Amino acid sequence: MMKIVRLPAPYFLTGKYKKWGKRFKERREANPNALFSWTQLNGRRINKILLDDLMTMTEKHCSFCDGFPIETVSSKTIEHFRPKSQFPHLAYVWINLFYCCSKCQESKQEDFDKKLLKPDVDNYSFDYYFQYDTKTGEIIPNPDRENDEIERAKITIKLYGWNNHNRPTARKRTIRMYNDSNNSVLNDFPYRFILNYLS
């Protein structure tokens, strides 16, 4: 998971995110099984409008696993960090929305833990919380941290399924491709946090 610098909230969210979130919360209170559907603005669904800004923040990489390009291995989705089923009032809050691959979203689903790491907070860095096992290709908690920080790393690895979906093998393959490539543009590769970690 790369550190993300969050852009300012899009202008159209500023005056309306509370109203839209309140509307969805009221629907959930009336019917706990009510499904979420993105509101439309000028004939376009909000998620379609938001995608460009969210993709810009991550250089079109998944906010959590750093998969790239997403459209070749997954579908483009917007992840609600705090799930909309549990926090319906946050459904349109800018800092709760992330560009995400379907594998990460399917792994996390509607689960949440307050210790889950968030890539856009000031003090986040991959090296601090995690290590990369070059033999297995797995991401593991950094054993040099305090117990609470190790627990946060474990929760994040588990909820986003970082060592599932054949990802360890894909990481090892990416490292070989990067090392064999004459292309030094890091953003052209997935798993940039590992390529940085190993350099």
Structure description:
This protein is an alpha+beta fold. Helices cover 40% and strands 10% of the residues. It has 9 helices and 6 strands; from the N terminus they run H-H-E-E-H-H-E-E-H-H-E-E-H-H-H. It has helices at residues 11-14, 17-30, 46-57, 70-73, 102-108, 126-129, 147-159, 167-180, 192-198, and strands at 40-41, 44-45, 76-80, 97-101, 130-132, 139-141. The chain has a two-stranded antiparallel sheet. Strand 1 (40-41) and strand 2 (44-45) form a beta hairpin. The longest helix is centred in the first third of the chain and has 14 residues, at 17-30. The chain is globular, with a radius of gyration of 18 Å. The protein starts with 10 loop residues before the first helix and ends with a helix. The mean pLDDT is 92.
